[in-house]
Amino acid sequence: MKERRHIPALDGLRGLAVIIVFFFHYAGGTHSSLRAVRLFGFINKAGWSGVTLFFILSGFLITGILWDSFSQPHWWRNFYIRRTLRIFPLYYVSIVLVVLAAAWKGTLRQTVDLIWIPVLFLQNMPHLNALVDRIPSPLGLFHFWSLGVEEQFYLIWPFLLVVQKSRSRAQNLCIAIFLFACVFRLLIWNFAPSPDQFSEFLITRSGELAAGGWLALAYRGPAWSRIERFAPVATFVGFAGFLISGIFAGSLVASGRIVMAFGLPCITLGFAGLLVLAMRPGIVQRCAEAAWLRWLGGISYGIYVFHVLFLNTFISIDEKVFGHHGQTVATAGLFLVAAVGSVGMAWISFHFFETPFLKLKDRFTTRSHRPVVEASK
Prior knowledge:
73% of the residues lie in helices and 0% in strands. It is mostly helical. It has one domain (8-364). The two termini are 14 Å apart.
C-alpha cells in the first residue's frame, strides 16, 4: 500500500498548462499565408484549455488534501489559511499595481469604480466579466477569471465533500457536478441570448475541478490500477473528440455551442487521462518529470499572473525593439519579450515575495499518516 508522497510529474503538468496558456495569448499564427502556420494557429486557438488542465490539477490536489485532512482537528481553518497564503498575496499586489497604474495614467476614478469586482473574486460572473475588461488601467486583469472560479468553488467544495459518508459517495458527487455542468452548458448555449457571458461562470467550469476531484478520490481507492489501464484510451478519445468538435465548429475557441457543449467535456477527459498517465511509469511520466518543465511548474502561478498583467508593457517594448522589422518579426519579438519578462518576474516573485508566505503554510499543515490507497472505503 503506497504512502502519501509528492508527485513530481504534477509540477511538470502545471508547467505544461502555463505553456499552453502562454502560447494561446502570444503565439498567433491564424492569419499567416503559410498553411502550416495557419494550422498551428487553428490548434493554438485551443490554448484556453490550458486552464482546464489547471482546474483538473487543482481539483486533484485540493480534493486529495481535503479528504486526507477531514479526520484532523481544525481542518477547515488550516485549509483556508493555507489557500489564502498561496493565492492572496500576489493576487492583491497585482490589483494594487493595476490601481497605481491607473492613477499614473489618469484613470484612477474609473478604475476604482470597477476594481471591487476582482477584489471580491467576482470577475467570472456573467455581465461582471465584461466590466472587468473595461477597467481603464495599463495593466490587465482579464485572465483572473479562472482564480474567481477556483476561489468560489473552494468556498463551497470542502463542506460538500466533508458530509459524504464514503469515498464512493464523494466520487458520485464529483460525477454529478460534472454532468450538471455539461447539462448547464448545453442549456445555456442553446437558449440563453448571450451564452458567452457564461463561459467563465462557476457552474460552467465546475466540471473540470470535479473531474480532478474524482481522480483524487479514485487514487485513494482499490480501482486505480483499472483507471491506469483505461487512461490511454481516455486520453486519445478525449483529445480526438475535442479536435472533432473544433473541426465541426470551424474553430476551437471557447465560445461556440459545439465546443462548449461537446468539446469541453472531451478535453477534460483527455487531460484527466494525461494526468493518470503522468503518474505511472512511461514516456508521459518521463516527459512530465523533465527538470525544466517542473521548474516552470514551480513558478507557474507567477507566470500566469504576469504574462497578462504586463501585456501592454510587453507590447510597448516589442514595438520599440522589433516593430520596424515587419509583422512576423514583431510577433516573434513579442513572444520573446513576454516569455523572458513573465518568467523572470515570476522567478523573482516566487523567491523574494511568495516564498516567505509559503513558509508560513507549514504552521497550518495537518500531520496525517493516512495511506494514499484505502481499501476499506
